[in-house]
Amino acid sequence: MAIKNFVKVWLILAKNNLQNQLITPSSSILFVIGKLFNYIFSIITIYAIFSQVSSVKGYSLSQAIIIVLVFNFIDSFTQFFFRSLYFFRPILIRGDFDLDLLKPLPSFFRPIFSAPDFLDAPLIIIQIFTLIYFIFNFQVPISLPTLILSLAILTNGVILAFAIHLIIAAFAILTSEIDNLVMIYRSLGRAAIVPTDIYGRIFNFILSYIVPITIIMTVPAKAILGILTLEGVVYSFAFGSSFFAFSLRFWQFSLKRYTSASS
Fold first, then answer.
1. Directed axis angle between helix 61-82 and helix 25-50, to 10°?
2. In this structure, which of 114, 149, 157, 234 has its CB flanked by the most CB atoms within 10 Å?
3. How far apart are CA 25 and CA 22, in angstroms?
4. Distance between CA atoms of 99 and 128, rounded to whole angstroms?
5. Is the Cβ–Cβ distance between 60 and 104 less than 8 Å?
């Protein structure tokens, strides 16, 4: 299916989802305020920690703040685009996924892209401007090559996040279970609110190779700060492409074993 048509369908579904969220404006406003409070609190927490110590595992206050800001931005950005995964299980149980497989759309469109969360949109805008402000405030040197590399690493991280969501959706097809896997991913993801280097060897291995939270959250921040090594760059893209290919294969594997609700 052409990308143009894919985008057109996504825009239609996004518009419908936005209308649904605007039906209850008071709850939506409270939700946005809650997320904004959590965002501000995460920054205050870092300032509180560094009021007692000068550095953490070699990271300065400015570096830690940038890492927190990048983490929050990537977390909100991926939640905005991939939120529909949270509603995939009821679709499977009702048998609606049977109809989706007949449509001229990628088979992963419904479980991953069909319900963008516009309640994350205001926070994403705030996070972008906050990140820019702190980059200039801390005088982080951003050259054109650094900017291009950072955007490439960030894109690689988003693709990895998509791959993880696709793997979770595949497990949902095989087991009809999704909530616990999503919560595990979310819990591990929260660990990247601080540099993942500070964790022990075993937990760092989990975050780097099993559930690649480090590449999704921490590596883009390191690229912005200019502290990402060449080995880190090569590893990020190599692992990202391999993990993405694996997720597509695993998704096809699950589809071959999919049995509809009427079976």
1. 160
2. 157
3. 5
4. 38
5. no
Nearest C-alpha neighbor of 255 from the set 161, 163, 166: 166
The CA-based angle 195-199-201, given to 5 degrees, is: 130
Per 3-state DSSP, the chain is made up of helix, strand and coil in percentages (nearest 5) of: 80, 0, 20
Strand partners, 56: 59
DSSP code at position 180: H
Q: What is the DSSP letter of 56?
A: B
| Contact between residue 148 and residue 97 where contact means Cβ atoms under 8 Å apart | no
Burial class (CB in 10 A: 0-12, 13-18, 19+), 71: buried
Helix (H, G, I), strand (E, B) or coil at 34: helix
Decide: 231 and 151 in contact? Cβ < 8 Å: no
pLDDT digits (tens, 9 = 90+) for 192-243: 888 888 888 888 888 888 888 999 999 999 999 999 889 889 999 999 999 9
Buried b (16+ CB within 10 A) or exposed e, 167-201: bbbbbbbeeeebeebbeebeebbebbbbbbeebee
What CA–CA distance (Å, rounded) separates 173 from 258? 6
User: Each residue of 140-196: pLDDT tens digit?
Assistant: 888 899 999 999 999 999 999 999 999 999 999 998 888 888 888 988 888 888 888
Q: Give the containing element (helix H, strand E) for 26.
A: helix 25-50
Please state, in angstroms and rounded to a whole number, the distance separating the CA atoms of residues 9 and 180: 30
Question: Which amino acid belongs to residue 3?
Answer: I
What is the sign of the dihedral through the CA atoms of 220, 224, 227 and 230? positive
